[in-house]
Structure formats: structure tokens, C-alpha cells
User: What shape does this take?
Amino acid sequence: MKISALSIVFLLLLLPGCKNDSPGTYSYRPPEGMNDGLKTGSLPEADIEPALIESAVNGIYQSKFKEVHAMLLLRDGKLVLEEYFPGHDYQWDAPNHHGPRVDWNRDMLHVIHSDSKSVTATCIGIAIDKGFIESVHQSIFDYLPDHQHLKTDGKEKITIEHLLTMTSGLEWDEWGAPYSSQDNDMIGVWFRGGKDPAAYILEKPLAHKPGTHFTYSGGNTILLGEIIRNAARMPIDAFSKKYLFEPLGIDTSIWELRYENGVVECAGSLKLTPRAMAKIGLLFLNKGVWNGKRILSEAWVEKSAAPFPGNKGIKVPGESSGRVGYAYSWWTKQYTRSGKKINLYYAGGFGGQHIMVLPELQAVAVFTGGNYLTYRPPFKILEEYLIPAMIKA
Assistant: This one.
């Protein structure tokens, strides 16, 4: 049987990730159901204005927002928008951190960078729920048996909560140098502390009294991963798979980087699909419950959604989010639209990786991207298109 060229083109257009929209031509289409635990619906069913969404998607195709790789929107528990776009894979040592150019689709894992911190913090919450860890108010040294010799000069007062909220007080410079430089402590640990990253972090002097000063630190999150490993007797990749990903029906995840001694780099190396990110967002929107089963305590979700005392007015380099707060490794922000207060808390990662939870709108937005050295557009898209589409004037 002969198949015409026109038929082949038509079949290709039906394949996931093979959508050939050109700038200005996109028309909304509801997401496909994939039997993966995510319910699907449509924008009109969710009372969302399609025209604004179409404008946002067309703007991405027109390169108005540089590199957005995926944009997903969920409302009232259903995935109502799922779009993927071409762009570059991440490569640390390439210009602009841009590796090979690929056509992103729903089946491809994407490095989520510092969204990994929010996932690691979620695992700490689960570890407490399961009884592996007693309390966030314990000294970190209760779970770092190989580093007791560093429990000096006031560092014994650093608690798990201080790590979660980036208030450990340990000296750390992650925002003062680019992620391509060894002067950035997050990169420097590979070159100067790879044999024992926990020691590299804990040997830093105390610059502030624990609990009193925000300093963004991937080192804090690496220590959280080690606390999980020692408390639960399994590394975070195994722990997250057993207690978070498998219960959510996430069957593929990769913690991509390990230091020389096998410690998982859990501050920025996790790779997930955008649908998996959406499930994590929906878990938090539903206050720790997934499909009727509690995975995380509601109290932990509340701690993730409200800024830790003192962690307000933070300006994140490269982000258009404005001044934000920081909670249990989730960022926080508040909007007012049409007289309505809208709270946002979100996981945020280098290049434009975001899991955004909007409780008042019963919505979750997910972005991946490759805007590593340029303006990062997810907040502009959220504020100018997604939120207005969900709020009728």
C-alpha cells in the first residue's frame, strides 16, 4: 500500500512533540489523557479565557520570551493546557549553557535545577511524617555522624529548619558569581570539596547567627540530602522514588550528579518531565493529598507556602518576580487582581524552571526553559496572561 507525502505529514502532526505551529497560528487544543494519574480538561471547562492563553503561546513561538520549553496549566485538579517548544538542552560548559537544540515533548526529562531544592525539602517533610526524623528543630549534627568534629563555633545550633529556610548562617556565595565560575560556591564545591562536599560546606565559618539572616545556599540543601541519607539509611534518589515519586505515579526521575564520594547533588541536579512537575504542584495544591491518599502533612504544606520570619523582600538575580519571600525551600509572592488577593508559592530554578501553586485560583502552572543568561519570562507570562485569563474583570 502506498502512502502519500501528505498522509505522512498528517501522521507526524499527530505525534506528541511534533506540533508544527508557526508564529501567530496557534489555536488552543486540550491536553491528551495519558492514563498517568493526571486528569485532563479544557480551558473553557475550567472557566479560563482561551484568547489570552493563545496569545501567550504565540508569543513563545515568536521568541518574545526567548526560550520557554514547556508551559502547563492545571485548574480544579485537571490539566487544561500542555504545550512544548523547541530549545536547547542544558550544558554547563557551553556558551549560554546551551547544549544541543531539541524539540521538547511530554516524554522528555528536563533538568529542573533549583526546583530540586523544593523536592528535597518535601522529602524532609515526608521523612518527619514517617518518623525517620524527629523534628525540624533538631541540630543538623544529630544526623551527620561523620562530621561531629565540625560541630564547633556555634554551628551546633544550626537546625534542620535553618537549612530549609536558607538561614543556617554559614558563609556561602552563590549569587555573587556566575554558575560558570569556580568563585560561585555551588561550582567551587566540585573543584575543592568533591571528595567530601558536606565537609566543604560545614567548614565554612558562621557569618550570621543561625535563623537570623537569609543567604541562598545550595550547600544547605546538600546537607539536607545527607540528613535524609543518614536518618532513613537510603540516599535521596532512593528515598524520593519510594516515598514521593512512586506514590505520585512518576515512573522516571534522575538525580543526575554525584560527588566523588557518592553524595547526591540534590540542590539542582534532578531531572523530571513537566507532567511530573505538575503532579508535585497538584500535591501541594491539594494540601499533601494525591488521589485521596495523604503523602505529605498539611502542616508541611502550610510551612512551604508562608515565608519564614525575616525571609521577605528578597530579589532573585535574573528573575522578573520582584521582591519575594522564602519558606521551607519554596518561594512566596502575593498579587492583587480585580480586588482579589492571590497568594503564590513556587519552586524556582535556574533558566526558568517553575512549579507555581496558586491556591485562591485552584491552579498550578509549570514552566521549563533555557533562559540561563537572559531575562526569565515565566512571571511575565503568569502575570500578563495566565492570571488575567483565570480572573474575570
Notes: Residues 115-129 form the longest helix (15 residues).
